[in-house]
Amino acid sequence: MNANAKSSEQKKVERHPVKLDLDFVQYSKLRFIDRSFREDEQLLPVAIATLAADIAKNGLGTPLIVRPMGDGTFGIYDGTRRKVALEHLVQTRDGFSTEMLVPVQVMAAETNEADALRLAAGTNFARLAHSPLERSRFALAMLQAGNSIADIAESLQVSESTLRRDLAVVSNDELLQQVRAHEIAATDAAAVAKLATDKGRMPDLLKAIAAWVTDIKEEIRREEARRAAQDDKPLSAVQRWPQRYMTREQIGAWKIALERDEPLERATFKYRVVVREDKVEIASLSADPREMPIADLAKVVLRLSSGAEQLEGILQQRWELEKLKEKERDAGQGSLPGSAASDRLRQMGIDEQIIQEALIPDEAVAPEYVAPEQAEEAQS
Known about the structure:
By secondary structure, the chain is α/β, with parallel strands linked by helices. It has helices at residues 3-7, 45-58, 80-92, 113-127, 132-145, 149-156, 160-170, 173-180, 186-198, 202-229, 248-259, 294-326, 340-348, 352-359, 372-379; strands at residues 20-26, 30-32, 64-68, 74-78, 101-107, 273-276, 279-282. The strands form two sheets. It has a five-stranded mixed beta sheet. Helix 4 (113-127) packs antiparallel against helix 5 (132-145) and helix 9 runs parallel beside helix 11.
């Protein structure tokens, strides 16, 4: 168990309401709390410069929420970006200094860390959009402070199952590093992390992700070489992130392998075709059949064939009901052109007009159907 996981096993503390008093605090006495959950992208110079310009023009519209730290300073629990923007103004604008007074809402001195973070969650996540990783890191800080899973889920407005899944990512240092390095997206990591933890196979999952990343980086390297040789536009920084090339099929394969206690090096290929009377679900698949493993391609063929047989049965039932409802039969038998599949439809007694319309490509326009006997009359 790593340090993050150990530190999350804290005794739960009792909830208390947090009292806030409006006040002014000297800028130099404001400091960031240790548990900062903001990602670097949220504090980009361009974004901070824009916020600083707004503060310089209109003032600090929303006070920072702070808590006395016991040493004469005040920890910021809501207002990280505003504090960074004020730093920018102190360094670049006249009239802003470390001695200036900043409007704040101050928590009572007796407020504990768990209550302070729960209040911060309500104000931060209700006002601004945050990435899944930011939410997960903040949830871990709340858990370590003594908040219960139920209280954290309520504060962050997520389900308890989603919260537990997200915590499995940030509770493992190596997996968290893979996420922060853009090797795997936080949502993809969360989809398999809890299952791997529950199965005691997190080392196997980390090894599988690392192997996958190595392969993808080699593909990216070859693509960069190809572009350089052909004087094409080089890949952007984002296009070099391995996480962009993770597929749902790969995540699904790892999940199945974990559930079945199979090796993750060659995880079971996942492909589902579900046919029921009230639902038809065909899995999304984007792959070159010429390069797919034979076993995977065979699974696709079998799933599609089985689904087609089930659909034929439903189609036949519906057609028979339609014939009974209309009290007419028009089998449309004959040697009209069509595939083996269309011949099976004719054997079912499906009307020829429906069969011909079904054979028309999606982009084509259906011609007006003329029954054989009408065509003979027109010719005579």
